[in-house]
Design brief:
Elements: E1 7-9, E2 13-14, H1 15-22, E3 25-28, E4 33-34, E5 36-37, E6 47-50, H2 57-62, E7 67-70, E8 83-86, H3 90-101, E9 102-104, H4 113-116, E10 123-124, E11 129-130, E12 135-136, E13 141-142, E14 147-148, E15 153-154, E16 159-160, E17 165-166, E18 169-171, E19 176-177, E20 182-185, E21 190-193, E22 196-199, E23 206-208, E24 213-214, E25 219-221, E26 228-230, E27 235-236, E28 241-242, E29 247-248, E30 253-254, E31 259-260, E32 265-266, E33 271-272, E34 277-278, E35 283-284, E36 289-290, E37 295-296, E38 305-307, E39 312-313, H5 314-330
Length: 337
């Protein structure tokens, strides 16, 4: 279930009513009530999940979801206890279902400083907007024109810089967010429909653990359903992008213009050089180093240093670079006649 501090859960609907609204066909269980959406792996009897790819067939077989949305060829694989909706675009149908069952809380009403702060040591500068349910810990400063969305929790001794926005987030102690940082915006997720691409609602959160620093104009997206997590004492430079569902370890360092795609995981003490780019669903081991400008398209084992595009172990990269240089220099230009 999405966090109630950030999302309103709407009244439940029957499987038949949902199917009518999302353009699916009921295979069985039309009278069952559905109250939430969830992935196959975490759905319970009151939730609706979907199968979007054959590689998740095992998760479909094991799911406890009350209803599943499947393509026509997967109907027989649906678990016996689940109601079934058939759709040729199951992910899009699930996205439409989420819009009928969950709604992000809006910043309809700001609250007074006294409602949000732990004590008088909290400083709220001019122009700050605080959403309903915001809580701010002792010794924290919220700088001018920052916008803190509904339900956000900010720990003690933090600095939230000018023009920062924080939404759908849980912020630890001693966190620094420099000017213009964007925390908790919707992650980039889209799926195809008969009418074209549609956005997939993002129902997760951002968690910044103690001691995290986020540089100016950097962006950290909230999770699609699970959380985006930035580990303790990680330091992020200016103009860095962290996509949804990433789980970043402790004491990571990210230099400017690093771009991390969705669902990346990194161990502790990983270093990302400037302008490094990481493909989605990549796992980076503890203590790994990624050289500036590298393009990572494969998992990196712990302790290794990778460089180049596509990135590979740095010794291999250097050998190939030297070999290419020798080949180029050995080919002399033809003499003029």
């Amino acid at each position: 279930m999405p966090d109630a501090r950030f999302f309103e859960t709407l009244p439940p609907l029957t499987v038949a009513a949902l199917a009518a609204q999302i353009g699916g066909e009921v295979e069985r269980g039309g009278d069952r009530l559905i109250a939430s959406v969830a992935p196959l792996s975490s759905a319970d009897g009151g939730a609706i999940a979907f199968l979007g790819d054959r590689k998740f067939a095992a998760a479909l077989a094991a799911t406890q979801a009350g209803c599943v949305i499947v393509p026509p060829e997967a109907v027989q694989a649906a678990p016996a206890q689940a109601a079934v909706i058939v759709s040729r675009t199951p992910q899009a149908a699930w996205a439409m279902a989420s819009l009928r069952l969950h709604r992000p809380l809006k910043l309809d009403r700001g609250i007074a400083r006294s409602e949000a702060v732990e004590d008088d040591t909290v400083v709220i500068e001019p122009g700050v907007v605080l959403g309903e349910g915001v809580r701010i810990g002792r010794g924290t400063r919220i700088c001018a024109n920052a916008v803190i969305g509904p339900g956000v929790q900010i720990g003690r001794e933090c600095v939230i810089g000018p023009n920062v926005s924080v939404a759908f987030g849980l912020i630890g102690d001693r966190v620094k967010l420099y000017a213009g940082a964007r925390i908790g915006e919707a992650g980039f997720g889209a799926t195809g429909t008969a009418a074209g691409a549609m956005d997939i609602p993002q129902l997760g959160r951002v968690i910044l653990q103690d001691g995290v620093t986020v540089g100016a104009n950097s962006c950290i997206d909230r999770g699609a359903y699970d959380d985006t997590i930035i580990g303790e004492n990680t330091k992020i430079d200016n103009l860095v992008m962290v996509g949804h569902n990433c789980v970043i370890g402790r004491n990571n360092l990210m230099a400017a213009n690093t771009g991390i795609s969705g669902s990346v995981t990194s161990g502790d003490n990983v270093i990302f050089g400037g302008k490094a780019g990481i493909g989605d669903h990549i796992a980076i081991g503890e203590g790994a180093r990624i050289a500036a400008g590298a393009g990572v398209l494969a998992d990196i084992p712990a302790g290794e240093t990778w460089s180049g595009y596509p990135a590979r172990p740095i010794r291999q990269f250097l050998r190939e670079t030297v070999w290419l240089a020798k080949q180029a220099s050995s080919k002399k230009a033809p003499k003029e006649s």
